Amino acid sequence: MMLERIRSKVLAGERLTGRDALRLFETDDIFSLGMLASTVAARKNGKRAYFIRNRHINPTNICVNRCRFCAFSRSKGQKGAFELTIEEIIGKLRPEVEASRPISEVHVVGGLHPDWPFTYYLEMVREIKRQFPRLHIKAFTAVEIDYLSRISKLSLDKTLSTLKQSGLGSMPGGGAEIFVPSVRNRLCPEKISGRRWLEVMSAAHKAGIRTNATMLYGHIETVADRVDHLLKLRSLQDKTGGFQAFIPLAYHPKNTRMRGRYTSGIDDLKTIAASRLVLDNFDHIKAYWIMLGEKISQLALRFGADDVDGTIIEEKITHAAGGLTAEQLTADQLVHMIKKAGRIPVERDSFYHRVRPG
Ligand code: V47
Ligand code: SF4
User: Fold this and answer.
1) CATH class (in words) of the domain with range 19-345
2) In the prediction, which pLDDT does 357 show?
3) Which of 31, 95, 212, 296 holds its CA 20 to 30 A away from the CA of 155?
């Protein structure tokens, strides 16, 4: 019953308020919530569910920040710390790019290294582009871009345009966590503020770089904090239109200093559905199978999601924190997953163009 008024608004194409959004998170009626979100997803993407052939690369896990939810990062010299050379990065990519069905995108995200200069990052992007001109480079979160601008002493705009000229194609959505300062200060006190994250994304969009957005949920935040986060993203998207997909990231507690519990399947599905309904100006909601698991991701495709990410190949951030999934799935497995969820698999490129029929 509680959802009746919201349903009417959604069906009439009216925008939901923060109060409506709270109701979505608070409802127990997940079936009505899922159906409503699914209706909106169908309006935007029909029955299509997207996937991509991609590979993740983490150039280093050495990081000057110490986010309390992060089990991936290490200090310099600490056991388990690693640094990849550009040759090693090229070596990881080559078999995937030269395969009969090559990856179309590399996703590059890492720690904030205390010594690497900006030129190392530029060289990394340039060399990937030189070796594999057709590979799309989706790299560096807003947190990394801010750091690169500080170490290079270049303005944000100049940092972004230099990276773009060197081959950066788009940016992932990490580092957003939860924007509300009181929560953010407990999660990751050294990290840039939520406001700065939004500023960096705004600058990227103005520079013609499309990005994603994320929200880390299921730790110490309240549903009101989630709603605040979604509304801030929606408001920036109204201004720039530069976000492609929104990805709720389910908190994984193992080996972290924050501890806590894994999220529940119910909360995962509610968060997908509420995001779909609140972010009316986002084209895509991604069910990141690495964090949700294959089965919840399938259900998420019936709760408003239209994308499951990709083949990944190697995943360190979630798996350091107790990820329960495999690190990679083949395109065939992704197609099967999507079909069994009653959706039409579409292999996409980084801008959601169809690559070939699934
Ligand atoms: O920024 C860190 C999160 C993010 C944990 O844009 C954790 O297409 C859960 O942003 N439990 C990186 N999450 C991953 C990311 C991403 C992944 C896939 C696709 C895209 C995209 C973006 O992972 C970090 C942080 O928010 N994270 N530790 C943890 N223990
Ligand atoms: Fe560093 Fe990112 Fe981990 Fe925070 S989440 S400690 S910024 S690698």
Assistant:
1) alpha beta
2) 55
3) 212
